[in-house]
TrEMBL record:
CDD domains: M23_peptidase (cd12797). It comes from the Bacteria. This is M23 family metallopeptidase. It comes from Metabacillus sediminilitoris. Residues 16-76 form the M23ase beta-sheet core domain.
Length: 79
């Protein structure tokens, strides 16, 4: 699992959201926490703005949102 070096937990969600929001400075490179496949690329029209959903090898998934740009494609391997 990759660990972020910079950033801060910006919001915790008590119900209906089992994730953690972590704010990073704009332009910071972002890596997936685990290996997987890019399942969905969000174009900015959804609530999370530009982002991706990754299906991890262990069956779990991660959603990365509010990104300034997305440079991956659906079906691409994320490592």
């Amino acid at each position: 699992m990759n660990v972020f070096k910079d950033g801060e937990v910006s919001q915790l969600h008590p119900t209906g959201h089992r994730g953690v929001d972590i704010a990073l400075n704009e332009g910071t490179s972002l890596k997936s926490i685990k290996d997987g496949i890019i399942e969905t690329v969000y174009d900015g029209s959804a609530n999370i703005g530009k982002g991706v959903k990754i299906q991890f090898e262990d069956g779990t998934e991660g959603i990365y949102g509010h990104m300034s740009k997305v440079s991956v494609k659906e079906g691409q391997v994320s490592i």
